[in-house]
Fold each of these.
Amino acid sequence: MLVKSKMNAAELGALWTTYHKKTMILRILEHFISKSEDQKAKDLMSGLWEKLHPKVIEITKMLENDGAVPPIGFSKEDVTLDAPKLYENGFDIMFCRILKEISMGMYVLHMTISYREDIVMLYKQLTDITQSYYNQFTQYLLEKDLLPRPNYTNMPKSVEYITDKAYMKGTNLFGHKRSINTVEFGLLYHSIEANISGMQLLRGFAQCAKDEEVKKYFTKGQELSKEILKETTEILLQNNIQPPSTPGGTVTNSTNAPFSEKLMMYCTYLLGGFSLGAQGFNSAFVLRNDMIAKTGVFAKDVFEYTMEGAKLMMSKGWLEEPPEMDL
């Protein structure tokens, strides 16, 4: 039997954030499920919905049992199920895969600041669900030829140590850049894969947004993704590496929004935070100074864009205030 102590402030904040993200994902899944023409994709997304919905109810009860008012998050009012399909060609599963990738990172963080056993178990169960569906989404995309595998390389035959600091310069006296290593390649590849889907997502959001400020914001984000893609792809080409040709899905010509602008803005805000985390991770493992500099520029641009989105949500009354520290 789990012994329940009083919920602490960090746990309250974690559950509050999880509630927002989970209710957003449920609304996105509901639209994708209603429009899916592929039975396997529909079954996958329906299975995920059926596992996440009870967890939202569980979080609600946890908060209420400790005397906290649950956040509003996102409700049926934030999704229009009879709106035409906004994305085609596997984008639904591609985007669900990205959402599960974000979830994995957030659950690790939330578990490390949770101490009450039932809350820790909640995040363990959510992690198990997420890892399972992330793999299922990945295998689906591979089977449908919608997700290319990263490039192959020759396997190392010996172990070497870096002894020359010029390794970090990326260039020698003649201006020749050293080849990127496999760790750097993996980070670049992930960036390209994520930004292709992000660019398509924001293109669709911009196409159906009615508020002019919101529409301009989504268009700006689409252009930012394009710039990151351009710069990252150029690094691979300079190293004679063929960039991935991930389709990224297709945006239809529909101008009817399947989601509320509040939900689309929050989703973009969430992706911005995920991108910032990725840039920070990249800067720790990339060892070529020119690439580190680019990562810094990307992080600055993404940070400014994300903060602009937060201010825009505040001006529209769409950004819920997290519970304050009331000691």
Amino acid sequence: MFNFTPAVRNILLINVLVFVAQQVLGDQTIMLALFPVGSPNYQPWQFLTYMFMHGGFMHILFNMFALISFGPLLEMQWGANRFLTFWLICGVGAGVLYSGVRYYELDKMNQARMEFRQDPSSGNYADFFRTYLPEAEGYRENARILQESPTPANITQATENVDGIYNQSFNVPMLGASGAVFGILMAFAYLFPNTELMLLFIPFPIKAKYMVFGYAAFELIQGVYRVPGDTVAHFAHLGGMLIGFIVLKIWERSRGQFY
């Protein structure tokens, strides 16, 4: 543990340097994050750069702690080049899969937006906010006003509110190394399934395979039944695990080439 192998050390250093740059340069670094496909801020190279960005100190702390906890043993098993390759594939793959999910979500939001535009009723207005922004303050009152007084001015204001939520969603980027980290967790559990781990929030040792399975189930539940205000990219985490598993199976079948 905490044996800083070359690739782990370099990944850690790059993430720390980028995080420092974020604090110094602020919004000037935002274009490194991954914006939804279709956003005016979207760029293809963000699939690579987003994984070196972080949303705060605790975000980078947990991701880098996982990297230095589980990464070195994998790097000693694989070598630096293959470990780095695995890290990048999981990170990029997680971004691609998450972007696909996000595109689907935004397309459904747009359909709901167009339904409201075609029928600007208080019910459709409330349904839109209840589905996509239930934590928003005042939307119930606005729906009541629209029901009691569906004047052109109130309809216009309600339409602008709905359009604003939809447009704002295109300006919410994803960032962080979590997709790559979850790929590392999957690889560790796959190669060392019976290694017992002591976690801070569990008072007894748990085998790596059970920890990763439980974590994947938790992320799936959180992603499907999203809590209002939850900004965690759960499907990016699951995407990192899935991509990691696929890469491991490919490498396992090509053992003569990769080992």
Amino acid sequence: MIIDVIGAGSLGLMYGGALIYAGEEVRFWTRTSEQAAQLLEAGMKINQPDGQVWRVQAGSFEARDIASLPEVWNQKPGHMIMLMSKQGGIQEIMEILTKVRKLDAALFCFQNGTGHIPVIAKAFPSTRVYAAITTEGAKRTDKAEVTRAGYGETQIGWSNHPGMPIESEVDTLVDKLNKAGFDTKSSNEIDRLIYRKLVINAVINPLTALWRIPNGELLTNQERREVMKQLYSEAVAVYDAHQIEYDTNLWEQVVAVCQSTSSNWSSMCMDVLHGRPTEIAAINGSIVAMAREAGMRAEVHQLVCSLIEGMPLGEE
């Protein structure tokens, strides 16, 4: 079974590399031909939290730039796609995938935010599109090396959109990821988990990026907690307006995530520190859009969107 990993950032390298290490057949599709060449030449390393280093030998996998995917796929189709890119890159990837004659595969979306899954499902009717939620964290230290931040949990399920799921496809990937060292489960409540993670990300990520601090430092003074609570209260008010269910202790869960990942730097913070585009539009922007649909205003979320989007971009 061929597993195509689209996006070789930190999570893409970590998941794809671990699957190869566990004996799976993986093809990496990278943003640049330079990264693909480096992976093919040097292989890759995954630094584990317990100090182990998993070395994935060159020649044990394929790696190409994403632009070449249609030509390769039309000759040798894959069976599963793990879409690991950020939401901002999905449109470009979709345009490339439209050149595939028939994208008959299971596609697993690992993005933050909402709204992208039904768009992908509508564009590729022969594809079964699933959602994946993970609390895994990783930091890419080189184009072919990644450090796993800790041990998280991955959940995979069928999001509520048109189409027909195949339960065995979810079970197959769950099994493969467990064998590759990831605590992975199937879920029939994936939409609830998506909205849960959206609130957690919308509270933690922009504030750590603006203040340039690790997650745990959000809890170190009252002023920071107050801004967190403002973002949280706006988000759940929007959920109430849309009749979206959420746990009654969701605020406590936000605090618990800050505590359990206290030394972690959010991906949005790292993007800001390196002058890269962020996922603010897919995270807090989703809250703003949902508020607008309900005839409301999410002013604090709009403010952090404007502040993050106004950050200068530059070279890493």
Amino acid sequence: MKIESKFQKKKPVLSFEIFPPKRDKAIQNIDETLAILSELNPDFISVTFGAGGSHTNNQTVELAKRIKHQYGIDPLVHLTCLNHSKFEICELLEELKDAEIDSILALRGDANPAVEAKKDFRYASDLVKFIRQYGDFSISGACYPECHTESKNKVEDIAHLKEKVDSGVQHLISQLFFDNNAFYSFQEHIQIAGMHVPVEAGIMPVINKAQIERMVTLCGASLPEKFSRVMHKYEDNKDALFDAGMAYAINQIVDLLAHDVDGIHIYTMNNPIVAKRICDGIKNLI
């Protein structure tokens, strides 16, 4: 079933994100994670695109095939375009067709100094238009509740998102955030802008100090006082920080569900314990 159709049948939708294992590890090593995630009955699992813009060595499609055909769960395949030509994208789309995978998260991708960017696609909206012309795929997109780090302001960011939705995006997944009010404000802004597609709230449980510092640098998420206070109190106690991070994420999700969000997308970091702990905490709510 295509991703956007799931929101017509069920609300809220629950999904997870995983990433392909590193090249020096066999893809079979992720089976333990997938086995546990499948028991949690997600509506779909998204698979990130391999780092570095590599096409030949990318394991994303192989992992998506495993999710679909071995575990019986619909995969959502991330597809970045900044470092790919139209020919390479066509090859990937054909590979997805052959695997009977029809849901794509269309992304620009981050610039990689080690890989020269191609000229065929400049923005995610360019990729969306290309996929729309190429075949009958379900296309999802990313959104930023607190503004993309490269946008000048929120007005410009919403305008770019509107272009992406108008190009053919049928479902949005948000970047991680720690302030639910920022997400609710974002929901109002996209409604005013005329975007009426389901939006999943992206939640990443913080379980170590290095993780939060890295992610905030990359995505620009703000840190509410409550969150900062909890993290600072337990930052030197690994076990306590894990419990505090999980509790914060669960409380976020409870509040989001009370506000009738379209769905919850959990960034699992390939850690099935994280996903299971959260699902146990909200099992009677979703």
